Amino acid sequence: MDIDPTQPWGLAIDYAGRATLTEDGHTVHVNVSDTSLSSVIGPDSITGAYSPVNVTAQFTENGDGNAVLRGSGRVTVLPVGTDPVVPDRTAVQRAVAAALEDFRANVAQYATLCATWPTEDGSSGDDGSTTDPDPDTAV
Questions:
Q1: What is the 3-state secondary structure (H, E, C) of 99-125?
Q2: What's the burial of 32, exposed, middle or buried (CB within 10 Å: 0-12/13-18/19+)?
Q3: Which of 15, 9, 93 shows the shortest CA–CA distance to 53?
Q4: Spatial distance between the Cα atoms of 69 and 83, rounded to a whole number of angstroms
Q5: Half-sphere exposure of 131 (CA within 13 A, CB side)
Q6: Sign (positive/negative) of CA torsion 12, 32, 99, 88?
Q7: Strand, coil or helix: what is 97?
Q8: Residues with Cβ < 8 Å from 48, sequence gap 6 or more?
Q9: 72-118 pLDDT, tens per residue?
Q10: Which residues does 70 contact at the CB level (< 8 Å), separation at least 6?
Q11: Using one digit for the tens of pLDDT, what is the confidence trace for 11-34?
Q12: Among 46, 55, 106, 117, which residue's CB has the most CB atoms within a 10 Å radius?
């Protein structure tokens, strides 16, 4: 992902902290938000510290038969002392990288799961072998 040096968070975000970008052929949705429960951004009345900021990136790819694979990543930017969080231009980049890695892991796990269960013709996995599911776990 290319970081835009003219933007505080490395990419243009809207008034609600949202942005959309394309990375590795995926449309990734990014959200930058503080973790407070207040609509006013200010220091906590008890601790005097500002809330951390979460940067999330997520995307979904849909396939035939309602097959869905997701990727998500999150980076938390912490305030220093009692100062507000300073925008980190690499936070979005790291969140997007985490989402892509999560997606790749989900693809591998999904492939492993699919190889565990035989198809209607009795084949399982890519090698064409047949397996009988464990009768205790078969549905």
A1: HHHHHHHHHHHHHHHHHHCCCCCCECC
A2: buried
A3: 9
A4: 39
A5: 15
A6: positive
A7: helix
A8: 82
A9: 999 999 998 888 899 999 999 999 999 999 999 999 999 998 888 87
A10: 58, 59, 60, 61, 102, 103, 106
A11: 999 999 999 999 999 999 999 998
A12: 55
The model's pTM: 0.79
**Residue 81 has which token pair?**
């002392």
Please report which confidence band the pLDDT of residue 126 belongs to, taking 50, 70 and 90 as the band edges: low
Which tokens belong to 70?
A: 């997701």
- 2: which 2 tokens? 């290319």
The letter for the amino acid at 36 is: S
| DSSP assignment letter at 43 | -
